[in-house]
């Protein structure tokens, strides 16, 4: 008996389950169906490959900025629900530089809630940069966080079922199901009955190194590429170096020339990285991007039954996904009372 079915066990599906619990939905009424679950690795499962931190990566539209704000300001509560220290989510300092003027509305929104927010003096900017900020951000140990999040939800009573759906109708096999959340990431392009041809991949290769002396984030938004250094909490000193954002590229392979380019750019941005540099692995993932931006939308499936799409979180699923799924859950609860 599952009134609520969530398709997808990436960060967006897990945030959706938590938002349902936060609205006092009975956990026993929630089932998650997913081809891949926390602990698995696949090019078709993006969440384990993320950097992952909160940064200025999101687009400048008011809705996504609101999703960022909700997520940033609710992560402390989620961290505590997941047990605090060791859960794979923690705060670290961050510095971001731009080689172009960032959008003013976005900076104004971020400055209203980011902890320890500070605009850098021109003398603190690297050559070529025109703007920079410092603040306290959130850092995720993505694989660890996903695993702990799933365990927490299971402990509450949420059911996880490994299952690949070929058609959305398979999510409605239980006659008591009224709402299906479509949190299928890049899979939203292919799920029959609700195929979304606006979804496309944005590939990113990363280099994971061991660097106990690096405990802060540093990012540079260039005109051609983005360079980032992201420490991974609760990971025995791992740091993620990137990156690339290659729209339309489905390639699951990794390339040595990209690794060399990432190392060159990140060491230029943070020269201390070169000290005892130890590469642990090289990986890549496909950000589930969407023409027109994030989709949070309710669609009627049949009489009294609805699908809520929460997709297209691209390179900001961790930092905006809690907010996006909060809106999706609000829509679903409003609908179910109609
Ligand atoms: C290199 C890289 C760095 C990144 N860094 C950051 C960062 O620093 N901060 C940040 O916020 N974000 C970052 N991201 C983006 C983030 O990883 C994504 O936005 C997020 O993981 C998307 O989550 P999702 O749940 O939508 O998709 P996924 O994690 O792909 O999950 C999709 C789920 O749906 C399931 N599914 C799909 N189709 C079906 C089907 N037909 N039947 C059953 N199950 C199905 C899958 O099995 C899976 O469980 C990064 C991404 C990459 C690649």
UniProtKB/TrEMBL annotation:
Cofactor(s) for this UniProt protein: FAD
Entry's Gene Ontology BP terms: D-amino acid catabolic process
Oxidoreductase keyword on record: yes
Assigned keywords, A-Z: FAD, Flavoprotein, Oxidoreductase
Residues annotated as binding D-dopa: 287, 315
FAD dependent oxidoreductase domain: residues covered: 4-326
GO CC aspect terms: cytoplasm
Pfam family, one: DAO
Gene Ontology terms, MF aspect: D-amino-acid oxidase activity; FAD binding
Gene3D superfamilies: D-Amino Acid Oxidase, subunit A, domain 2, NAD(P)-binding Rossmann-like Domain
Domain of life per record: Eukaryota
Chain sites annotated for binding D-serine: 228
Protein name: FAD dependent oxidoreductase domain-containing protein
Lineage: Eukaryota, Fungi, Dikarya, Ascomycota, Saccharomycotina
């Amino acid at each position: 008996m599952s009134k609520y079915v969530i398709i997808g066990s990436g960060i967006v599906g897990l945030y959706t389950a938590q938002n349902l619990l936060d609205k006092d939905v009975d956990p026993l009424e929630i089932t998650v169906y997913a081809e891949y679950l926390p602990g698995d690795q696949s090019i078709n499962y993006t969440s384990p490959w993320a950097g992952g931190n909160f940064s200025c990566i999101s687009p400048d539209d008011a809705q996504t900025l609101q999703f960022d704000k909700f997520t940033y300001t609710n992560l402390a509560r989620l961290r505590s629900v997941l047990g605090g220290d060791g859960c794979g989510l923690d705060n670290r300092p961050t510095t971001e530089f731009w080689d172009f003027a960032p959008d003013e509305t976005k900076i104004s929104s971020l400055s209203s809630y980011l902890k320890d927010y500070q605009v850098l003096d021109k003398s603190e900017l690297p050559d070529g940069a025109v703007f920079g900020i410092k603040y306290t951000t959130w850092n995720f140990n993505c694989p660890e966080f996903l695993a702990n999040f799933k365990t927490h939800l299971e402990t509450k009573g949420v059911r996880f079922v490994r299952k690949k759906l070929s058609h959305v109708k398979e999510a409605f096999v239980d006659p008591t199901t009224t709402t299906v959340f479509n949190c299928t990431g890049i899979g939203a392009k292919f799920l029959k009955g609700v195929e979304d041809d606006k979804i496309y991949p944005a590939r990113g290769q990363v280099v994971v190194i061991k660097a106990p002396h690096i405990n802060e984030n540093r990012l540079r938004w260039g005109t051609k590429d983005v360079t980032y250094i992201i420490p991974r909490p609760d990971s025995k000193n791992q740091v993620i170096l990137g990156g690339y954002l290659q729209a339309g590229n489905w390639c699951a392979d990794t390339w040595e020339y990209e690794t060399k380019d990432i190392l060159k750019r990140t060491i230029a941005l943070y020269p201390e990285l070169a000290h005892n540099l130890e590469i642990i692995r090289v990986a890549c993932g496909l950000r589930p991007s969407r023409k027109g931006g994030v989709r949070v939308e309710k669609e009627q499936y049949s009489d009294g039954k609805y699908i809520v799409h929460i997709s297209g979180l691209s390179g900001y699923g961790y930092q905006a996904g809690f907010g996006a799924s909060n809106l999706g859950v609000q829509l679903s609860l409003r609908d179910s009372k109609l």
